[in-house]
Structure formats: structure tokens, C-alpha cells
């Protein structure tokens, strides 16, 4: 089954570990969020692409969910001693990725080409594509400042109140080559259990991707990243609450109600089934906590299960989540 | 005494460790060779400037003479696993310097400004100036290829026969700001015990520096890097032999005979005194092996000793060593 996955960081990576076991390499396209890409010490860092790559390569730091296992921080500590900011916990092994990516981009390669080369260097054949070769910056707006995600998440530890999220330059960004074709030919779109506002919406904010998702005949399954009102990793619940959205399976369902045919929610949230069904979404209840490959494969298998649409989509009815609109 | 030191890598750094204890900071200008600067993985590396900085900061790896002590190589090993060349033994702590320098240059700072900032970050007040803000590339010519120094020295382990050395773009390079003034006002010029052909000649190959050294009234002392036909570190003897020069104190004296007033040679080479004196150079014999700060201070004190010229220089008589001419 030709499958396209829209992916953020840790939650997506954990799902993809299973999904890549079930979907043949040639049939899977992963569209990675690059709204959180940033430049640190002159190096181009793509946190979500790296998290997916490290997870698929089996070298991810399982405790954090990101970074490389058994990494050291000697460069970072030295940068700190020399007066540089060190809020981003850059590992020495991890640094090799950023150095190579920056070098490839400097040589004129696109982010898509650089990503493909890095995947190949990690002996991965999976097609991981950044959402765009052009920069799109997800910005967190608080009453006092506008921040990059990493600044909000790592440096300010999610303390500022979030009043808005903007996807800077998304409207003029082109999808990376192959993305629109992959969506056009897909039979299944999977929205990974990632932060809807920070990881999935930036992808949807690119007009040609949004249009392709509106036009596709593929059955779309979203997996809720919110379990019992919380997230396994990251600030999705906090951001959703901050933005006045309900940080619950229902809140996620509402967010995706015009994009998805089905939502997979955790067994802890089984009581929310009826309310979600009222949104005319199919609801599947299972364990969505992925502690190991078995959990990831189980959840992937459910996301790939043959289903029939409850509601036949039309170009009119399928619109972008309100909050993802600029 | 206002002093200018022309400096290469390890030998120079060891002398400067002593010299900086004897000459007040405001009176000392170190002109560092940047002919061996190169770009690796997109990072700007200045090997000689770094060796001097790490040595003066007391963090140099004493065994190697370069790099930072107790460093690890996790980024390098990871780059290797990802298929990158790893012949340059880049340490994780060392990498912080290259990252900061590259970032500063990218932001539009000159190499002089970047060097000053890095020195300041290492709590060093010594004025270390790159010979030029423009790139000058020392190239080693062998019968089969033309190489950068690092390529010849580290990658090819000094195996190729050297037929020539060229200082690419030296003729059009400007000295870094302040260099000409420092030489004009100097009372003492010290040519550090560095490789004459690879570390000192690139500095002399910059026309305005050459002219300033020809015009200066400062007494010029060169310290031979060759001891008993060998070098403590680096390939000076090998290169000199390869180029048909005598790898001996006499060979060094001949090389500097039109530039220096005096040459300091090692006690192991005392027998060469008479022959060198015939070149109309003052000869001072002492221990030139610097195992510790005491040795460095001792040698620096001798290099700073008040001396009278044997031969009054004229602009005509003082010329660049033949081999340093392009």
C-alpha cells in the first residue's frame, strides 16, 4: 500500500520504526517537518529529520528520544567555556550530522539531497523528505516575544504563555520534489503522533501540500499524540491548552476533523469515543504508547488496516485545521 | 623592548610561552603563519594560530605539541563512520575553536578579528595576528601532485618528494592591519624556531611585510629549528633536504643570512659556529630544546638580549631568502 507519513520528531520516529517494517521501502514516503530547523554556531540543524534518522538507524538515545546514544558533549562544553550559548544539548557524535549537512548545503545541495545523502550514510533506504527545500520557520508567539521552537522549548523550557503560532514563509514555500506526486499516488496518509500545531501544521501550511492533501483519494489516519491529557514527549498538551484548544483525544480529533478519515486514540481515552464519532470520524482505540519495536509495529499495523471512509471527502469539505491557517 | 615575532606552529608556540612572560603584552606582536589554513567539512582551520593559542592558554596537548589536552574524537570517528575523510585528527574540544572561527568569518568578521575574539575567549591578552586576512595557500609541489601542507604532512605523511613550495596568492595579499606598523616600530624581530620554508617564508612572501622587514631598524634574531640535522617537530629537515638545502644550522643560517642579524643555534651544533660567522651573522649557542617553561624563558631571554649589529643593514642588502621568493 503506497503510504505517505506526515512526521514530526520523537513520536513520529517511534511509529516509523514499526511502519518501515511493514511498508516496502519503495511504497513509503516520509514527509518530515522542518519548521523547527535552525542555525546554531553556523550549523544547519534539522531536529525532526535527525530524530527520525537516528531512530531508524537504531542509534537514537532511547531515554531522550532524540540525539545519539552514548554520546559525549565535549565540543558543547568547550563552546560553553568559550562563552557560547549551550542551551541546545548538542552531542559530539550528533555534531557530525550537522557538520555534514551544513557542508552539503554550502556546496549547493538542496536539503532534500542532503537528507538523502545523510540517510544513505546511515545505511537507510527509507525515503525521508523534508517538507520543503526552502526555509519555513515555526514561530511561537508569547505576550512578550516571538521565539523559535527550540528557543521556546529548550532555552525557555516552555515557560512563556503561547498566544499564537505562525509558520513564517510557509505560504511561499514549495514542497520538496516528489512530495505532491507521493500524496497524489498514495493509498494511505498517516498523520504520525506528533504535535499537531508544531509538527504537522507547518507541513499543512505549505499551499501545494495542503492542496495535494485536499485532492488525494487516500484514506487518512491520524494518531493522537495526546494520551489521558498528556504527551509522552514534547509540549503538545501545553501548547494546545495555551492556544485554547482542548488537550485531549477529542481536541486532537477536532483539530484533524476536516483532514482525517480516522483517528486512533489510546485505550486510556476510550471514554471519548462517542464524542469523537459525532465529528464524523472513525475512531480506533488501542495502545498507542510505543515502548519498543513491537508496540510500534502493532500501532503501525492498525494505522495501515484497510478501512472504508465514513464520509466521502470533497475538495470543499476537506480543509486545513483552522489553527494551521496563517 | 617592542618585539615582533614571526611564528609558525609547535616550535614557535613553545618559544612564545617564554617570550610572553618577558615582553609586556602591549610591546609584543606575534605574526602567525596562515599559509597552512584550510577548510575541512566546511570549517576554517588555522593550525598555527590554534597551536599558539592553545599553548599560551596552557591547554595544549604537550605530547603532540598541537591540539587540546585530554581531548576526545567522537565527532571525528562519527564522521569517519559516515564516510568522511578523517586524516586530520580533529578533537571534539578543538572543534569548538573551528566552529566559532567559521561562524565569525561567516558573520563578516576578518580573520584578525576572529583570532582576537578567540584569544579573548581563552582569556589571552597577547596580540596574535594572522599574517593576512586574505587567503595565502602554501602548496607543496611533488613530481606527481601539488598538495596543501596538511595533505602532504598528515594525509601523505611527508612521503612525496618535494620539488618546490609555492605561496599561492601571497603576492596579492595585504598584511593584516597593524603588522606593518608593528614592524616599523619594533626594536627586536624574532624569527621563531619554525620551519623556514613552510612557516616563515609564507609570511615573508607577502610584499608589504617583506618591505617592512627590509626597512626596519630592528635587530633581527632567528632561532634555528634544526638541531643536529633534525627537527623536534614537523618536517623542516625533510623539506629542506628535498629542496636541496642543507638541513643543518648552517643551512638555516644561509636561508636567513640576508634577513637576520643573528642566529641562535643549539649547543649540539656548536661546531658549525665558524662557518656561520663567515656569513657575517652573529652566532649564539645555547640549549634550544624547550621541554618546559624554564627552557622557553631561557631561550627567549637570549633572543631578547641587547646586541649590536655586525653589519649595518641597508635596504639593498636585506632581501628575502631566495627560496621564499615566488
Q: How would you portray this structure in words?
A:
The structure is a homodimer of 326-residue chains. By secondary structure, chain A is α/β, with parallel strands linked by helices. Chain A has a single domain, classed as Rossmann fold (3-Layer(aba) Sandwich), CATH 3.40.50.10680. Chain A is built from 13 helices and 14 strands. In chain A, helix 1 packs across helix 2 and helix 7 runs parallel beside helix 9. Chain A is globular, with a radius of gyration of 19 Å.
List keywords for this structure.
homodimer; 326 residues; alpha/beta; Rossmann fold; 7-stranded parallel beta sheet; 3-stranded antiparallel beta sheet; 14 strands; disordered C terminus
CATH topology of chain A: Rossmann fold
User: What does the oligomeric state look like here?
Assistant: homodimer
Number of strands of chain A: 14
Radius of gyration of chain A: 19 Å
Please outline what is shown here.
The structure is a homodimer of 326-residue chains. Helices cover 37% and strands 17% of the residues of chain A. The first copy, chain A, is α/β, with parallel strands linked by helices.
What order do the helices and strands come in, and which of them pair?
The structure is a homodimer of 326-residue chains.
Chain A: E1 3-7, H1 10-22, E2 28-32, E3 38-40, E4 43-45, H2 47-56, H3 74-81, H4 92-106, H5 111-121, E5 127-130, E6 137-141, E7 146-148, H6 149-155, E8 164-168, H7 179-185, E9 188-191, H8 196-204, H9 207-215, E10 219-223, E11 226-227, E12 230-231, H10 236-242, H11 249-256, E13 262-266, H12 273-277, E14 282-286, H13 293-304
Parallel strand pairs in A: 1-2, 1-9, 2-5, 9-10, 10-13, 13-14
Antiparallel strand pairs in A: 3-4, 6-7, 6-8, 11-12
Helix pairs in contact in A: 1-2, 1-13, 4-5, 7-9
Amino acid at each position: 500500500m503506497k503510504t505517505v507519513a506526515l512526521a514530526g520528531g520523537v513520536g513520529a520516529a517511534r511509529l516509523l520504526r514499526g511502519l518501515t517494517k511493514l511498508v516496502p521501502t519503495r511504497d513509503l514516503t516520509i514527509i518530515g517537518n522542518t519548521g523547527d530547523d535552525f542555525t546554531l554556531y553556523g550549523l544547519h540543524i534539522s531536529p525532526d529529520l535527525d530524530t527520525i534518522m537516528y531512530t531508524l538507524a537504531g542509534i537514537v538515545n532511547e531515554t531522550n528520544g532524540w540525539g545519539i546514544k552514548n554520546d559525549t558533549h565535549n565540543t558543547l562544553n568547550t563552546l560553553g567555556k568559550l562563552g557560547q550559548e549551550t542551551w541546545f544539548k548538542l552531542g559530539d557524535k550528533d555534531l557530525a550530522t550537522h557538520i555534514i549537512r551544513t557542508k552539503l548545503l554550502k556546496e549547493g545541495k538542496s536539503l532534500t539531497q542532503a537528507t538523502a545523502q545523510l540517510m544513505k550514510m546511515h545505511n537507510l533506504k527509507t525515503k525521508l523528505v523534508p517538507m520543503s527545500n526552502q526555509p519555513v520557520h515555526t514561530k511561537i508567539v508569547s505576550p512578550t516575544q516571538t521565539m523559535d521552537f527550540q528557543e521556546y522549548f529548550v532555552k525557555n523550557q516552555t515557560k512563556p504563555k503561547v498566544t499564537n503560532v505562525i509558520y513564517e514563509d510557509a505560504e511561499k514555500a514549495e514542497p520538496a520534489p516528489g512530495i505532491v506526486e507521493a500524496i497524489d499516488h498514495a493509498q494511505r496518509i498517516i498523520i504520525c503522533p506528533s504535535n499537531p500545531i508544531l509538527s504537522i501544521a507547518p507541513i499543512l501550511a505549505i499551499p501545494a501540500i495542503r492542496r495535494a492533501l485536499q485532492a488525494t483519494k487516500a484514506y487518512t489516519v491520524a494518531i493522537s499524540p495526546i494520551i489521558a491529557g498528556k504527551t509522552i514527549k514534547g509540549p503538545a498538551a501545553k501548547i494546545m491548552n495555551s492556544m485554547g484548544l482542548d488537550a485531549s483525544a477529542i481536541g486532537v480529533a477536532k483539530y484533524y476533523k476536516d483532514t482525517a478519515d480516522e483517528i486512533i486514540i489510546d485505550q486510556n481515552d476510550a471514554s471519548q469515543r462517542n464524542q469523537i464519532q459525532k465529528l464524523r470520524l472513525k475512531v480506533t482505540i488501542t495502545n498507542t504508547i510505543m515502548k519498543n519495536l513491537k508496540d510500534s509495529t502493532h500501532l503501525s499495523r492498525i494505522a495501515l488496516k484497510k478501512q472504508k471512509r465514513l464520509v466521502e471527502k470533497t475538495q470543499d469539505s476537506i480543509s486545513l485545521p483552522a489553527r494551521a491557517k496563517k
